[in-house]
Amino acid sequence: MKKLILKNQISRFFNLNNLIYLVLFSLPLYLIKFNIFSVPTTILELEIYLLAFCFLISALKNKNIKKSIKDFIKNPFFISWLIFFIGGATSVFISPDRRISLGIFKAYFFDAALLFFVVCSVIKTKAEIIKCFKPLILSAVVLCLVGLVQYFFFPSMLQDGRIRSIFASPNYLSLYIMPIYILALSFQKVSRKENKKMILLSMLFLATIYLTFSRGAWLGLILGIVFITIYSLSLKIKMKSRFVIPSLFLIGFLASFFFIIKGSYSFGLVPNSRVEQSDNIRKEIWTTSLDIGLQHKWLGVGLGNFQNYFSEYTKTRINYPEYITPNAVTPHNIFLNIWLQTGLLGLLGLLCILAIFFLRCLQGVKKEAVINLVLMSSMIAIIGQGLVDSSIWKNDLILMFWFLVCSAYIINRKGEKNGE
């Protein structure tokens, strides 16, 4: 009897849906790194491989592996994904440091492709997608709480007075939690009890984003919230009562924080020179990145080779080696980054993916208004922050991006009913 119970518990843990939830909750665990037979890997990566292995065993057992592959090829995102993937693969051979480029390709392209394939094959309904939001939200809540504990009890762990939780930079924290907060809006209810929970959650997320002092995060968040509010106004009254009033409240909240942030620099909560210095550095990086792109417009500079190339390109320029280059890990722009790292092919793939994503969501708004609006708003927020940062160029962020793409495909899948 005990053996049977243990067997059922193990079987339940290795359920594919549960493993997907585990991966989504564990996105930040890419920070735990180690080597297996001299090959670098992470906790997150091993979870993805476990998920893929269990999926393969299940598919072979049920004899539906061919169907899964055929369905994946029929996926409207497949061609765009393939173009993006080939762009990344090509850039591995362009890069002078094959070890770094292969590592990035493994994490940002191969691992992401595995998750994309498995999620599209396993998750079938709207209800399952909503369940996938929960581990993401929970992981973001944990990071927020860790960040707030840092701020109030461990100020030595702050970076220029900014919270960063477990990440190396406050911007990385804001990049992670900002789109997840918008996904959390899908859980809004008309009832007062549920709205109280959403207000508490909003206060936690907004306070954390505020204390990162990331202006890019506020740009993305405001664009996302404004979009969801304006679009809601064009829908039915039922939709308005569910979404518009809370969204208008959030816009007011955002505006208040925006002015508070501006005053925070004046009152010395963070160094007064940070804004001006950050702006100047980004302008120089953007200008120089565009120059580099125009010289390498077709293939870029190679996967993982941007900072090295930038350093060599600007080594004779005044102030660059000391102040600009150390901050030029990426071009600080999502489109410049993809262009320079994966070439024109990778950029074309990304643009096609985004075009199909918004087209499917816009077409699906009439049937599934809330979740499609939330998905579009979250992606707009990512793109908005991506105008001043490389918002999908991290192990966790690229997987979150592909999860949003999966969600748009599954929710608006034609010919199938999305279970509640």
Main attributes of the structure:
single chain; 420 residues; mainly alpha; two-stranded antiparallel ribbon; 17 helices; 73% helix
Q: Can you walk me through this structure?
A:
With 420 residues, the chain is an all-alpha fold. It has a domain at 125-275 and 323-411. The protein is built from 17 helices and two strands. It has a two-stranded antiparallel ribbon with strand order 1-2. Strand 1 (33-36) and strand 2 (39-42) form a beta hairpin. The radius of gyration is 22 Å and the shape is globular. The two termini are 35 Å apart. The model has no long low-confidence stretch (mean pLDDT 88).
Task: Give the topology.
Layout (H helix, E strand, L loop, with lengths): L1 H12 L2 H10 L7 E4 L2 E4 H20 L2 H10 L3 H17 L3 H25 L3 H28 L16 H15 L7 H21 L2 H19 L3 H30 L7 H22 L10 H8 L6 H5 L9 H31 L4 H18 L8 H17 L9
Antiparallel strand pairs: 1-2
Helix pairs in contact: 2-3, 2-7, 3-6, 5-6, 5-15, 6-17, 7-8, 7-9, 8-9, 8-10, 8-16, 9-11, 10-11, 10-16, 15-16, 15-17, 16-17
